[in-house]
Amino acid sequence: MKTLAFVNQKGGCGKTTTAVNLAGALAARGERVLLVDLDPQAHATLALSIAVERGVPSMADVLLREVALGATLQVTAGGIHLAPATLELGEVEEAAQRTLFPEHRLAEALRPLGDEFDFALLDCPPRADGVLAANALRAADHAVLVVEMGAFALQGALKTVALFRELAEERELGFDLRVVGTLFDRRAELARELLIGTHARFGERLFDTVIHQSARLREAAASGVPVQVLDPTCRAARDFEALAEEVAALRGARELVAGLA
Amino acid sequence: MDGLALFCNLSADGPVTLRRLRAVGVRDLEQLAATEATTLAEWLHVSLPQAQAFAAEARKLAQRIGESTRRARGAAAPAASEAPGVPLAAALGREQRLVPGLLPALDATLCARLAGAGVRTVRALAEGAGLALARRTGVPYSTLLTLARAARQLGTARASAPDVQELRVHVLIPERRPEPARVAGPAPVMAAAPVAAVPVVAAHGEPFALPLLEPESAGPFG
After folding, report:
1. Partner residue opposite B207 with nearest CB, options A186, A189, A212
2. CA distance A61 to chain B (A)
3. CA distance A186 to B136
4. Which end of chain B offers a freer environment for a tag, N or C, measured as fewer CB atoms within 10 Å?
5. Band of residue B137 on the pLDDT scale cut at 50, 70, 90
6. Are A21 and A240 in contact (CB under 8 A)?
7. In chain A, which residues have their Cβ closer than 8 Å to the Cβ of B219?
8. Tens digit of pLDDT for each residue in A13-54?
9. Which of A164, A190, A200 sits opposite B72 (nearest CB)?
């Protein structure tokens, strides 16, 4: 199972949209996809039209009460298996202060599902220094920094990278950093300049595919389905199809270890 | 993301054009920039003026990202391996002129015909072979493809030759930079060292030009 965490300090840069629609594109290729919502705002859960009722296990139970992650899974539109979030997930940060190695919990919870899924996509909250993001980074083979092609985006991305570097050193994390550009409008000169700047800074770490700004993506989220289900021929669906192709070509944890050997 | 992918995102529709260009063997932005507009028009199924505009954009971006990357990384002079969009084989090929016997079946007549169409180097042959060139020169298309393949192999072989390190130091120095101070003695590799201290002049006055990024290395994430 390849595990990718979608991260950025900044909100509204397209983390959830990327995670949900990439999950849809990978599922459309026939991959077995697990999407883990780690954001207390539960936007990925909402974007797939799931409402978690009282008593139904969610990610908060996994991280706070050691419920098995498999017990939370719900099959959503497009064939994605979702581990949903609720507002209660916000309590994890506080509970972490009373717990030993709180950032190890997600990696342990994902381990039994390693053979059941080809990909696990982790949608992180817009806070890279919290215990939820630390859980995601510890569990991930690849941290995907989602960079919006808008004002201050590159500066924010560089700050996040600096924070990751500290985290990686402090907690001995071993993930591979990748970058994806989102909300790109090639008619806007600022967006074009930002893409050139992001390319100059991140080079080969930047995915070839850039996700274009699209009304279809907003409609898909409002309809509670990935864009591949709403309109598989639209440009946004093509963007995610291309991104899925690149992600499928990434090497997973076992392959990375084999490569080192 | 390489320069070619960046260009496809900026000047075309992104993944579809990128896939199409890679399918016809375009490896990088430099190669695309050097491709004739008529060939591009065939590859991309666009009109000649569109292809000409496309090629011009590619040339501009190839030059631009060289500057942009160096600025972002805070490097006064990049290592040859870091110079974006200038593959070693292409750089070497640029220097190698076509002469009879250099490639199998390349005789004086073929050399003259190719030169008449402006194809005088190994690189130009490797990258320019196409239907348009076949029509202009009267050389059969299949012969051109065979020659282009041999030209690419020659470029690759030269790139892996033991004297590559020495050659690329010279080839990849941007032409617009001031001449490095002359060092007495014949050693060409050592003479290249002062270039590292030549500051890159950042492009100013462009709309929305990005501020200089932090100069230090990003370590394992850079």
Report:
1. A189
2. 33
3. 36
4. C
5. confident
6. yes
7. 165
8. 899 999 999 999 999 999 999 999 999 999 999 999 998 888
9. A200
Residue B216 has pLDDT above 70, yes or no: no
Task: Name the strand (E) or helix (H) holding A100.
Answer: none
Question: Is A165–B219 a contact, with Cβ atoms under 8 angstroms apart?
Answer: yes
What are the angstrom distances between the C-alpha of A116 and each of A32, A37, B34?
7, 18, 48
Contacts of B72 by beta carbon, 8 Å cutoff, 6+ apart: A197, A200, A201, B213
Q: Tell me which residue in A158, A161, A238 faces B15 most closely, judged by beta carbons.
A: A238
HSE, side-chain direction, 13 A CA sphere, residue A110: 29
Q: Give, rounded to a whole angstrom, the gap between the first and last alpha carbons of chain A.
A: 19
Q: Which residues of A219-247 are buried (b: 16+ CB within 10 A; e: fewer)?
A: ebbeebbbbbbbeeebbbbbbbbbbbbbb
Suggest the residue from A167, A187, A199, A233 to mutate for an interface test with chain B (most B CBs closer than 10 A): A199
A202 to chain B: closest CA residue:
B222
Q: What is the DSSP letter of B121?
A: B
Q: How many CB pairs under 8 A join A and B?
A: 89
pLDDT tens column, A239-256: 999 999 999 998 655 455
Q: What is the pLDDT of residue B151?
A: 85
Q: Which of B2, B4, B6 to mutate to probe the A interface, most A CBs <10 Å? A: B6
Q: Which residue of A has its CA nearest to B219?
A: A165
The letter for the amino acid at A177 is: L
Q: C-alpha dihedral over B33, B36, B42, B46, to 10 degrees?
A: 60
pTM of the model: 0.66
Q: Order the strands of the A142-148 sheet from edge to edge.
A: A74-75, A81-83, A33-37, A119-123, A2-7, A142-148, A176-182
Per-residue b or e along A154-187, where b marks 16 or more CB atoms closer than 10 Å to that residue's CB: bebbbebbeebbebbeeeebebbbbbbbbbbebe
- Which range is least confidently modeled, A220-229, B6-15, B213-222? B213-222
Q: Between B1, B15, B18, which is nearest A199 by CB? A: B1
CA distances from A9 to A38, A54, A124, A213, B165 (A): 14, 30, 9, 20, 42
Specify whether the CB–CB gap between A9 and A133 falls below 8 A: no
Interface test with A, best of B208, B212, B213 (most A CBs within 10 A): B208
Residue A123: count of CB within 10 angstroms of its CB: 29
Q: Which residue has the tokens 């936007």?
A: A43
